[in-house]
Amino acid sequence: MSKSHKFDESIRNPFFSLVGRRILLIMILLSGFFTVFTTLLQTYWDYDEAFDNVESRHYEIENIHADLLASSLWIYDLSSVQERLDGLVNLPHVNYLSVRSENYLFEAGSPVEVSKLVNEYPLEYDDPDTGRTQRIGTIYVESDTNTIYAHLIQQFFLTLLLNAIKTLLVCYLILLVFHHTVSQRVFHVAQFLRGYNPLDPGQKKLELPRKKYIMEKEDELDWLAAETNKITDNMSTLYRNIMLERERLSDFTHVSSDWLWETDADLKLTFCSDPMRHALGIDAKHFPYLHDVLTTIGCNQFIGNLQRQQDFAMCEEIIQIDEDTRYFVFQALAHYGVDGFRGFRGTGIDITELKKTQFELETLNQNLEVTVDERTRELQESMERLKAAQDQLVESEKLAALGSLVAGVAHEVNTPLGIAVTASSVVKEITTTLNEAFKEQTLTSTQFASLMKQVDDSISMLEHNLNRASHLIRDFKQTAVDQVSEAHTEFDVKRTIDALIASLHPETRKIPVEPIVKGEEKIIMHSLPGVLTQVISNLVMNSINHAFDDTDTPQILIEFERQDEHLYLCYQDNGCGVPKELHQRIFEPFYTSKRGRGGSGLGLNLVFNLVKQKLQGELQFESTPGEGAKFMFLIPLNLANITSQQQREDDQHTIGKQ
């Protein structure tokens, strides 16, 4: 029987279902095993019950009827004894009875020859006159066990037969239910898939048959049918998309101006695009060997690459087409299979127009070299200004950490200068590459566009970093030289700080944060108010730029009070804080946590120098990560007295040296 015929029969006949038959066989084996087991167990229970009944009957004769027989014998009522025996032998499970008493023998029933159960009990009489018990004979009982065994065997096979019939009937009904609920529906799914055609736009969806009373409203096979419909719909969509892509690729191949070609293992053309076919005069019905075509037009380098049977690219050839000299770049992929080399698939790109851009490229190279020279001179001038500013800083000795400042300047300026030097090197390398490609006539439009983009990016990087270096040098000069001299004046501390906070409002509202100023009224200082406001201003800007990135309710508190001849000033915020290992570095010049995002690292360094050198004060710093930063200052109230005293000490020191 053919496979197709078996498939069709499986839909109609449940016994042709391989799964159904296997399930039926398993059910019969399991049911038969349990049926035999339970029947044996029931037979064992019946066996025990039957022999218990026999023992019970013997016990009844011993304890009830034996006394009556003994009384009849004692009074010599022999006819009564025989009558009682004849009556007892009719009891169930009693086949033979006999009573022996001296010279008397009474019998009832037929003796059992084989397979019998035997018991013999004494006959005793209790004399009411004397109170003595006398043995007057025995009673002998026989029961046939063959009858019990035959009944048990008959009952065993009858039960087994009934259970077997019931099992077969149940299994057949289950097979029918399984056939209608599972097998037929699975066969419908398979039949649907066998006839599925992704090209048929009118393909019907899979619908499974349904039987009332034996099927759920929606079961697993319905889910399978729904998923099958989804998969077939997706396959149809995918197949249509593939056909669409195939048509699109075919259209692109025919309208493309580039040459597309393919060969077999013998280098015979199996496909070529229309532009290539028209340019080389190739017959669309009879493709020639590619070697013969290339020999005709003189593409020797192309022929050599084909003979190596390996991938190749950037194979430039000059071809005469209709008395017009054209430049082409060929590239191809070599395909291999289990049987070795299978052929090439490649393209030919017309780069004639790119040749016309070479003169423009040379002009661009010259302009690029001039630009690099100008930027280099500006870089040298910036380095000279940096050197002059550094020398002036060393001579003035205004900063507390000169070595750290010079290192910071060198590191900070070195980064943009190094990037600028790298960018200029990249520009030179690209210029060299362009010139070499131009001379070797291997320059493609893609390569030219990529290199020109790199040139533009390098020039932008060069200009940005030179400007960055120039700005850093300008900031360094501003920090390194002496602060603008101010006349010593008297001023009210609270009024001066309040005015400063008001002027910083455009910056503080960006966070937003509203600095709180707390302090004694009418504290008068004779010092440099501009320096003091510059210190507080730098601290506020430092908090705005660095402290409140992860703070929901930013706060700034400025407190001050008079302590003898000094002003105690405390500035604190509730920002992110500073790790303990960085406490010694925050006042270093050019150290910042936002390098590359606008931070110069000069704000706190300037605070340190202004407090130490201009205001002749002391500074302390405390901070815990997540709890903000705290700056504490102790500044003389009368800076003129401190300055005069230092001047006298310097004069005395000078006189002492003389």
From TrEMBL:
EC number: 2.7.13.3
Stretches assigned to the Histidine kinase domain: 408-639
GO terms of molecular function: ATP binding
Keyword ATP-binding attached: yes
InterPro entries: HATPase_C_sf, HATPase_dom, His_kinase_dom, HisK_dim/P_sf, PAS-like_dom_sf, Sensor_dom, Sig_transdc_His_kin-like_C
Transmembrane segments: 21-45, 156-178
Coiled-coil intervals: 354-399
Source superkingdom: Bacteria
Protein name in UniProt: histidine kinase
Organism: Salinivibrio costicola (Vibrio costicola)
Phylogenetic lineage: Bacteria, Pseudomonadati, Pseudomonadota, Gammaproteobacteria, Vibrionales
